[in-house]
From TrEMBL:
It holds the Pfam family Epimerase. Residues 3-232 form the NAD-dependent epimerase/dehydratase domain. InterPro entries: Epimerase_deHydtase (IPR001509), Lipid_A_modif_metabolic_enz (IPR050177), NAD(P)-bd_dom_sf (IPR036291). The lineage of its organism: Bacteria, Bacillati, Cyanobacteriota, Cyanophyceae, Oscillatoriophycideae. This is NAD-dependent epimerase/dehydratase family protein. CDD domains: SDR_e. Transmembrane segments: none annotated.
Length: 310
């Protein structure tokens, strides 16, 4: 089976691509390598690996690549509020328009597995879990564009949408700016963090469980297609302060405090039910504690701010 991945050298793609190759898939990656990464260097050993340096918004390029794919996984996106706010036009054309174009270019028989985001829930109702039936009220440019992309995906029958929780964990194309990754990095390097609006809650998922859910979707596509699925840890609907407490269990001299004034520009605050994906037989393998332990080891090696999107 031939898989086309846009943004395949990014944070998630750098873990997903080698995993698919090891499982025997033929994988073509399109990436503009905007972060100058060499995260797929080890994949070059595979005869079944193809890589194209290009832009996922280039219709002539994508038209030629799409025609040979059995499965399309559009990972390419500008991710995170700071990066999206820096270039709104690039965010809209990459996160939304490029996926709408792929839907137009692909045949009905070609399968799509698409990462969206559960940040589309925006600010949830206090104490009420967001399900796939909950209203989508994105409050950031990133959230808006991903919700619009999901609409295009679900309008075609042969697609699965994964509404990912906030991802954490080590990757060859590392991102330190993601919340869990950021707080563990500060705990390891600074031993302290000041938290703004520490009561804001969010759901979390390890990057390898993100890869596992894509594999699960490939294996169970016919039964799962046509629906969105929240993908997160059921026991990790945590506030920022609760997250810090989990980190402190493994780094006892980590000190955290909530700022009495000031606010976080990221206003997302919601808890999520992942019951639908669990009902399909998917089981996450990476609890938060295991991911924190992994990050501590990783940050013994990494001490550089190039590992973020801004």
């Amino acid at each position: 089976m031939k898989v086309l991945i846009t943004g395949g050298a990014g944070y998630i793609g750098s873990v997903l691509t080698p995993t698919l190759l090891k499982r025997g898939y033929e994988v073509t990656v399109v990436d503009n390598f905007m972060f100058h990464q060499n995260s797929l260097a080890d994949c070059c050993q595979y005869e079944t690996f193809n890589v194209v340096r290009g832009d996922c918004r280039d219709e002539s390029l994508m038209k030629d690549l799409v025609k040979d794919a059995d499965v399309i996984i559009p990972l390419a996106a500008l991710v995170g509020a700071p990066l999206c706010n820096r270039d709104k036009i690039a965010t809209e054309t990459t996160n939304r328009d490029a996926i709408q174009m792929l839907c137009r270019l692909a045949s009905k028989e070609q399968r799509f597995l698409v990462p969206i985001t559960n940040s589309g829930y925006g600010v949830g109702e206090k104490g009420k879990f967001c399900t796939e039936e909950s209203p989508l009220r994105p409050i950031s440019t990133y959230g808006v564009t991903k919700v619009e992309a999901e609409k295009a995906i679900l309008e075609r029958e042969n697609s699965i949408s994964f509404r990912l929780a906030t991802v954490f964990g080590m990757s060859p194309r590392m991102r330190i700016d993601l919340l869990v990754n950021d707080f563990v990095y500060r705990a390891v390097t600074d031993r302290t963090v000041v938290v703004f609006e520490g009561h804001f809650k969010r759901n979390y998922i390890h990057i390898r469980d993100v890869v596992n859910v894509f594999l699960h979707g490939l294996d169970n596509f016919e039964a799962m297609k046509g629906k969105p699925y929240n993908v997160g840890l059921e026991d990790a609907n945590l506030s920022k302060l609760e997250l810090c407490a989990e980190i402190q269990k493994q780094i006892p001299n980590f000190v955290y405090m909530e700022a009495p004034i000031g606010e976080d520009p990221d206003k997302r605050d919601y808890i999520v039910s992942n019951a639908r994906i669990l009902s399909t037989g998917f089981e996450p393998q990476w609890p938060l504690s295991r991911g924190i332990k992994e990050l501590i080891k990783g940050y013994t090696m990494i001490r550089n701010t190039i590992y973020s999107n801004v």
